[in-house]
Design goal:
2 copies of one chain form a homodimer.
Chain A: H1 9-18, E1 35-37, E2 43-52, H2 63-80, E3 84-94, H3 99-115, E4 120-127, E5 133-142, E6 158-162, H4 167-175, H5 179-183, H6 187-198, H7 207-213, E7 216-220, H8 224-235, E8 238-242, H9 250-257, H10 263-268, E9 274-279, H11 281-293, E10 298-305, E11 312-314
Parallel strand pairs in A: 3-4, 8-11
Antiparallel strand pairs in A: 2-5, 3-5, 6-9, 6-10, 7-9, 8-10
Helix pairs in contact in A: 2-3, 4-6, 7-11
Chain lengths: 331, 331
């Protein structure tokens, strides 16, 4: 992003909407070809996630929620890696420079950047004849070598997850209409679930706590079952998960209790943006306490076991719940 | 980018095509949610540029050239900022996971990453119903505070540019057919110009030399006239450019000499990916010498003057050449 006095359309667009967000000295007021991250002795953790209209968000999702989702899915990755946000760059592919869309988009992006301490450092706006796409690359800091990996889970450790699982999948189902929409007759419950789909709550407050306690971690973005399978695979272990221990919101639990959906809908749905992590038994107490102080509920949902099979999800009688698919795949 | 044994389509795509590129320890074999840049005491310069099918490259451009262009436009930014490449992340928005396209794309990307010492650290692949898009965020290192800005140009300094200007615009004109294609009857010349459009030559070898000598710098991506105007505007100066001093390839000069195109086609065309920089008169010699040793020709094309007007382009009689537009804008 760059702008000078002889402004082109792109330049004036940036000057108007995004320069107010470039409050960090490393953004150089978006007047340069690049931004900069100053050295702190930390490792810089780098993550990138893009969201595409019609794939990751719906064409009629409000622009402010699109902005927040684009940044937050990346903040969620940083938190799961134990990294404290340091900044981000934005690539915006637009069909047109539509002020009605851009103004609330930029405004919400600025609010989130401030709230999570993750300043805009630069970006690129390009035109596309296709769907709108927002790609964010976010940076975080961890002390040298302290990034939390997917690969550290050990046999006998507990599997922990933050918040509640499956709400975003239900929110998407509600937006698409159908049986979940019809069954969730309470508007407040519907709005809450749709909110979870549109605006994830990245667990930024847990970054250092995850780093202090977890042996392995990742964020749950493609569904708990599939993401846990990935963590286990890279760690060379398997897991047994007690389905009844998986934390559900009241709205989700109500739908399960009434038989509208089965638990598989929740554990294979995507867009949770909770942190999934593993830790030794004696870490569970201190982790739970520290997370509680940080305002985040965490739940112990199962155990890491030896083996290379896909993790098992069992009910309270110990029967395995069959999953038709583990998670969402774009291809 | 992440993959585990229970591979989804996206995961196996990444494993197959992109994991071989993840040779840097900070890429964690693309098995994790994030990559990492180790601390070196340097500032990390961050730049991001996306290319969109039908906008920045043509639908029938070969996949290997698309890969090289996507990375090189970012390497060009780093070089102009005086930054030595440190790594990049990739976001790929694809309509389908087409092996015939992906294999040469990934292979060429790996070759360029190796050639320019800029390893893949992570990425994201998403599906899109729209045009293919490749977004790269690249990282470079400079000693603390030594990033070269657009804003340092001083009155009386010389304006320098690397390589030749306008070839890529001619290459694009050739691909689109029309008078330039018809006039450039020599196939070798045509191929060379098309090559300049499809595969930029980022001046990575000049990063430290620019840092040592330039007061201000940027890469020429949207046309020399428009980009110089931006540099001057941010520096609070103007410039006078001698059009006859602008370096042209033999093919471009031939087309100008024969009257097929005017110089304005060359100086307002985009995609040059040369470095434009300013420096004190006494730096011109050492800069030119150092660039020559690095294998890059540089030319002195004009002078920074006081004022806030758009830079003037004058012919050898001192007459100003009128430019209908300064550069390409996407909006």
């Amino acid at each position: 992003m760059a702008s000078g006095k002889p402004a082109s359309g792109e330049d004036s667009l940036i000057a108007c909407y995004f320069r107010p967000l470039a409050t960090d000295p490393g953004a150089y007021s978006l007047d340069d070809d690049a931004g900069a991250l100053m050295p702190s002795g930390d490792d810089i953790v780098v993550t990138t996630d893009a969201i595409v209209e019609g794939v990751h968000f719906l064409p009629d999702d409000p622009p402010d929620t699109v902005a927040r989702k684009a940044l937050r899915v990346n903040l969620s990755d940083l938190a799961a890696k134990g990294a404290v946000p340091a900044g981000f760059v934005l690539t915006l592919a637009l069909r047109s420079a539509d002020e009605v869309w851009l103004k609330p988009f930029a405004s919400a992006l600025g609010e989130d950047a401030a709230q999570f301490g993750c300043p805009l450092l630069g970006g690129d706006t390009v035109s596309t004849p296709g769907p709108l796409m927002v790609s964010v690359t976010a940076f975080g800091r961890v002390p040298p070598g302290r990034m939390v990996h997917r690969s550290g889970a050990g046999v006998g450790e507990r599997v922990m997850v933050t918040g509640t699982i499956g709400d975003a999948a239900l929110g998407l189902a509600i937006l698409r209409g159908g049986k979940v929409h019809a069954a969730a007759s309470d508007k407040a419950a519907r709005d809450a679930l749709v909110g979870r789909y549109r605006v994830p709550q990245p667990r930024v407050a847990l970054a250092e706590i995850v780093r202090d306690h977890a042996s392995a971690a990742m964020d749950v973005s493609d569904g708990l079952a599939g993401d846990l399978a990935k963590l286990c695979s890279v760690s060379g272990v398997s897991a047994v998960i007690e389905v009844d221990a998986i934390p559900l919101s009241d709205a989700a639990r109500d739908l399960v209790t009434r038989g509208v959906i089965g638990p598989e809908t929740l554990i294979t749905g995507g867009d949770d943006y909770e942190i999934l992590c593993t830790m030794a038994e004696d870490r569970v107490g201190p982790f739970t306490q520290a997370a509680w102080v940080a305002g985040v509920a965490v739940s112990s949902i199962g155990t890491i076991v030896a083996g290379s099979s896909v993790p098992k999800f069992v009910d309270k009688e110990g029967r395995e719940i069959a999953l038709e698919r583990l998670s969402y795949s774009h291809f």
